[in-house]
């Protein structure tokens, strides 16, 4: 009998816990598993709630600095796009890299947020691309590029009509695929800050480079991505705390 009541107690506790409600590590952009609750959904997500260097933030009050010009080597095109249920993601093969502060970061994937996650002096953009890189030790460097409404985007023109609108669906990108260069503006001036992943587990220590110039896409292209993602997938702005934003 004591064993049964202990089991009952455990079950009651488990059922009542947010961890159970969110079935382990499931998270979302709204409701019970939304951004306000990420930190309590799983012990692995603690830093989402307790971190002091979280992303995104409003980029404002920039400090003048002597930022280095990184080297971009994006020669190998991405060939497959997948709807993850949280975003649209393009996987990139080996051979693409960003060299920053003398360190080589391999490009892993590019994904999209609609609307943008970072804001610049309070301005939010309709879309933001994240180019996610990791060095051999697993240190992360992410480049963010804002998209504004304007001229049609060349690479998106090839496949924005056939984006997968359901989770786990894939699309083979047309032709040779898409170079990661397509997601960057011509002028590569950037803001730099120390931040985190904007999705659970919200890992900190991420080097963020946010491009100053936006990339353009047509209203129809932006709408196509928004529709395929199916819901806003921007984490709310986080406090800057003691961080400096350098330009
Ligand atoms: Zn992202």
TrEMBL record:
Q: Which reaction does it catalyse?
A: hydrogencarbonate + H(+) = CO2 + H2O
Task: Cite the EC number.
Answer: 4.2.1.1
Does this entry carry the keyword Zinc-finger? no
Could you tell me which PROSITE patterns the record lists for this protein?
ALPHA_CA_2
Per UniProt, what is one Pfam family of this protein? Carb_anhydrase
What keywords appear on the UniProt entry?
Lyase, Metal-binding, Signal, Zinc
The Alpha-carbonic anhydrase domain covers 25-247
Signal as UniProt keyword: yes
Give the signal peptide, or none: 1-21
Gene3D superfamilies (UniProt xref): Alpha carbonic anhydrase
Enzyme class comes to lyase
Organism superkingdom:
Bacteria
Q: What is stated as this protein's family in its record? A: Belongs to the alpha-carbonic anhydrase family.
Task: Provide the protein name.
Answer: carbonic anhydrase
Q: Which organism is it from?
A: Modicisalibacter luteus
